Amino acid sequence: MNPDERSIHDHVDELLSGYIDGELTQQVRQRVEIHLDGCEECRALHDELVALRRKIAGSDLSVVGEDKWREMMNDETVKTTYNVGWILFIGGILVAGLVGVVAFATEPSIGWFEKLVVFAIYGGLASLLVSVLRQRLIERKTDKYKDVEI
To answer: Which of 25, 42, 99, 115 has a C-alpha 20 to 30 A away from that of 90?
Structure first.
């Protein structure tokens, strides 16, 4: 293959996916078709990609139906472990935060002004978090789309 034919060959290789998906303009699509008519290597690659696409499109990736998945996710055991997990996670964070606050507050090498600034920053962040959580809980009660399934 001469250098010009090689660059056309490489260029068509890059365009095959778009050609198979029907995403090319008419002019580029026609150039690819002309090249495929004269190049056995690219034609073989094209046929391989088309066969792979058919195989993937025809495969059933999940043997469990959508209704069964929904039923499994609404199981009491799943809900219980979900809630216990959140309680343990939040409890651990609160305990770690409390230990950090006590250690910071009782550290004699840190001045009162620095402590006040740090407490003001974290107090403000905590206040913002509580206000956002409160708003979300209020909205959750009145959300008319919460039971809509897609």
So the answer is: 115
Task: Give the pLDDT confidence of 65-108 residue by residue, as tens digits.
Answer: 667 777 777 778 888 998 999 999 999 999 998 998 899 889 88
SS (H, E, C) the chain: CCHHHHHHHHHHHHHHHHHHHCCCCHHHHHHHHHHHHHCHHHHHHHHHHHHHHHHHHHCCCCCCCHHHHHHHHCCHHHHHHHHHHHHHHHHHHHHHHHHHHHHHHHCCCCCHHHHHHHHHHHHHHHHHHHHHHHHHHHHHHHCCCCCCCC
Q: What is the pTM of this model?
A: 0.42
Q: Answer yes or no: are the C-beta atoms of 4 and 17 closer than 8 Å.
A: no
Residues in the chain, how many?
A: 150
The angle at the Cα of 24, spanning 20 to 25, to the nearest 5 degrees, equals: 145
Across the range 30-45, mean pLDDT stands at: 88
